[in-house]
Amino acid sequence: MDLFLTYTLVGLVMGAVYAIAASGLVLTYTTSGVFNFAHGAQAMLSAFLYWQLSVGWGLPVPVAFVLVVLVFGPLTGVLLHKTLMHGLRDVAEVTKVVVTVAVLLGMVSLSQWIWNPTEARSVAMLWGNSTSFELLGVRIRYHELLCLVAAAALAIGLRLLFTRSRVGVTMRAVVDDPDLLRLNGYNPDRVAMASWAVGASLAALAGVLVTPVAGGSLEANTLTLLVIDTFAAAMFGRLRSIPRTFVGALFLGLASTYLLGYAPTDWDWIGNVKTALPMIVLFLVLLVLPQDRLRGAQQRTRERTRVPSVRFAAGWAVAFVAIMFVITKIANPLMLGPWTAALAFSIIALSLVPLTGYAGEINLVPLSFGAIAVIVAYHTGVSGTGLDATLAWKGLLIGTVAAALVGGLVALPALRLRGLYLALATMAFGGLVSTLVLSEVTPRDWPIWGENTIFPAAVIAMPHLDAGPLDLDDEATFLMALAVLFAVLGVALVALRNSGYGRRLAAMKDSPAAAAMLGQSLVRLKLSVFMLSAAIAGLGCILMASAVGSVAPDNFLIVASLALVMLTVVGGVSYVSGALFGGFMVGMGFSLINGTFGNLEAGSDMYAGLFGSLSHVFAIAIALTGIGVNRNPSGIVNDICESYRPLRNARPVLYVGVAAGLVLLGLNWVEVIGDWSFAIGIFCVVVLLPVLGRIWMPERVLTESELAEHRSRAAVVPPELRALDGPLDPEERYDLDTYLGLPARALPALDETPSDLEATRV
Amino acid sequence: MSEPSGGAPLLETRGITVRFGGNTAVDDVSLSVAPGCVTGLIGPNGAGKTTLFNTVTGMQRPTSGRVLLDGTDITGRPVAKRAALGIARTFQRLELFLTLSVRDNVRVAGDIVNAGRRFRGGSIDVEAETDRLLELTGLTPIADREVSDIPTGRARVVEVARALMTKPRLLLLDEPASGQTEHETDEFAEMLAGLAATGLGICLVEHDLPLVMKLCSTIHVLDQGRLIASGTPAEVQASPEVVAAYIGGEVLA
């Protein structure tokens, strides 16, 4: 009985912490419509700050606690809302998700910069680990009591806030109808900002409370992924109801404690199941949630894309393969490794193009699906050992199919619901793979499979594919094989988008209600595209593993997946070239930046600190590019395409560009400039060419209105320079009159004001 | 209720009630739509017309009541299934595929139909049918424009063309004439009459009462969720309840 009570207490405490975190998440989601994937990261940052203040600098615990929970928390909330979330109302779900994911990655990088992750840190309970009292034979520590009291107070407080106070009622109104609220004289933005402040403060509170309860040692990734447990609890209330979220949180806390407490001691895997329990429960809850109503009344989002023709894509595919061929000839042989890795990651990123780019659905963990494919391919297709080992076609195929099937299984429960639920389900799946699959590093006696290990000794050596006459062990050949595969897949995806299937995906993305009304089964269509996407991710991951040589669980981390997804969206997720951007940033950018700065750091005593910091600065800068998706949701590739479109009329500019490229290539060939200078030079040419076009041949490049603006800017002479030599036009006279305080004569009325024109448009 | 000659109704609602919390949007409405003619559904704003459409198409589950198509109960069927059975609609607040061109908006409806019938045969020639419908609805000149760039009146016609692509038996039009110029409305009315003549059952929600009076053989009038009158245009115009519901609002033509 005592034991049961003790378990119950521990479970309730855990549940209370989940509840505190989850209610913050629900609060911000309902009032701003932005699901904060960085909620756990905020908790993590707060916990580290609390450690710094109380342990590192020795401030009294209450002071540190107040500074973190009541000052730092609200400040980050307000800052996030002011700078980012505020502008996320008229963008697609993907953009919202990626912006908060970027915040998550940025916060992780920041914490690793400030607090070296290799040092161990621990946080004690408030009032120490031993201050306790006994009740009914159960020892209750004050810290645990505080968790319970805080959660209970929060439950009551939020209830009162929403039903009794003016602010709370307006918060609820923001959810229902922000426009109506605005009409009634309230500012929905201010209400949303208040909720972000409260939500961030709750994240901070949860961060400070959870660490000692969960063992005491501070670990950035674990705390960051607390968000998964948190949204599992919030799922009980459909991400909206706070009371049901509390029920869910307490259920999760109790269930995981009982599970661990009462399981037979020889079940060594039960600890992992306990960690994974929130994710398992999340899938169960998804199964029973009622289907979403089809809502009409779409709004136009800021994303813009163009669909290239198949012929255009095929032309670029040939050019791409040719460029890669040249690169294998001129690049430093040592660089071929990063090039192949980058191409393999680009293929993984391609998986997002049909799913996210065409269909608007989100998979946050392509690498976790890839991990399944790698494991299956390893067990079914690898023969021989050491240098003789090869991967058979069979393994590649079965691995790819396995990823597709698992993808279908994972997505199915979430497909009846809004896109966000699918994103959450995939992230939970990522957590499941990490805790239950990638941790299976020792042999175990499986029911059918027999004595075997899923992930033997935490390293899978993936040999190259046995491709008959093609010797893929040769790096240049493998690189070219990947380049050709990427090009073929890219053209196939463009062809897919131009087919009836692709149009149906676009229709579903633009208006699910209208697509369903025309007879489209949304679930079936989403399922098919998700399986296609998972298959591509699986194929790409097998190739990535074989490009890298051997993979460990760390290669499939959720944060690595998140970075890949984010960078692909930054590049432009509707474009094959956007996938190329994402793949190269992850496969090449990261390793080069870290490698380069690592070498610099090792090579220079004086500037070691500087170079060490610079690599962190770069990691954060990459996260900032994800945050920049907010400003430019269509992606970098789209921007570049749009800037090059007008240059079709200005051929000479393009010739100059090609000539500059060839000169750089020649200089690199004769080794006057190195590979890096060559790459930077090409980058400059690509970026500066549209600018050159505007300056050199404005009449051919600019649109009529831009040209008119350009001319008027060139022609305008301010009145003070012109004096009274020429007659003033009515507008200038009006300005001058107002400036001098004279009664202004009315401007001549315009026939059609722009706003009237707008009103007649869709 | 005067049932137009032609036998069984195409669509029948029996005692449809929809409540949102304490608010009753549709209150025990039983009405029918016959094939081969245009049936009007009118009423002041908030009368429950769009909500009724939503229950017929499956986008809103009624609190009670049944929806019958050709005598078959379809109340529990999902939206996409009903579309396959021959129900199509347009939306009051436009639901176009904003990233597609006008032509592709129509064409994708054919793609959807063909994908659904892949294993059952009877697929349609999407390209030819798209051209025919664009011609019929007068959209050919703007077929390659982005659908987000065209005026609202034309956009409503795109929705009609798209709905026709599924070869429906019942077409529900939710305020299709709003945003159209007078000339466009005339052409539109002519087209609807032509479509009805081919046997299509059309149910028209519209605030342009002269248009409704001209086109419809039967008119149902909703007010605050309740059906207050049904009959020919002349009967409806003579109904005291209808006049009372519209006092202060539009004047019946």
From TrEMBL, chain A:
Keywords: Amino-acid transport, Cell membrane, Membrane, Transmembrane, Transmembrane helix, Transport
Species of the source: Nocardioides lianchengensis
InterPro entries assigned to the protein according to its UniProt record, in alphabetical order: ABC_transp_permease, BCAA_transport_permease, LivM-like
Cellular component terms (Gene Ontology): plasma membrane
Protein's cellular compartments: Cell membrane
One function term, GO molecular function aspect: branched-chain amino acid transmembrane transporter activity
Signal peptide range in chain numbering: none
Membrane topology label: Multi-pass membrane protein
Record's protein name: Branched-chain amino acid ABC-type transport system, permease component
Source species, domain of life: Bacteria
Family: Belongs to the binding-protein-dependent transport system permease family. LivHM subfamily.
Residues forming coiled coils: none
Gene Ontology biological process terms from the UniProt entry: amino acid transport
CDD domains in UniProt: TM_PBP1_LivH_like, TM_PBP1_LivM_like
Chief place of localization: membrane
Automatic annotation (TrEMBL), chain B:
Protein's UniProt name: Branched-chain amino acid transport system ATP-binding protein
GO molecular function: ATP binding; ATP hydrolysis activity; L-isoleucine transmembrane transporter activity; L-phenylalanine transmembrane transporter activity; L-valine transmembrane transporter activity
InterPro entries: AAA+_ATPase, ABC_AA/LPS_Transport, ABC_transporter-like_ATP-bd, BCA_ABC_TP_C, P-loop_NTPase
UniProt cross-references to CDD domains, sorted A to Z: ABC_Mj1267_LivG_branched (cd03219)
Record's keyword terms, sorted: ATP-binding, Nucleotide-binding, Transport
Record-level GO BP terms: D-alanine transmembrane transport; L-alanine transport; L-isoleucine import across plasma membrane; L-valine import across plasma membrane
GO CC terms: plasma membrane
The keyword Nucleotide-binding appears for this protein: yes
Species of provenance: Nocardioides lianchengensis
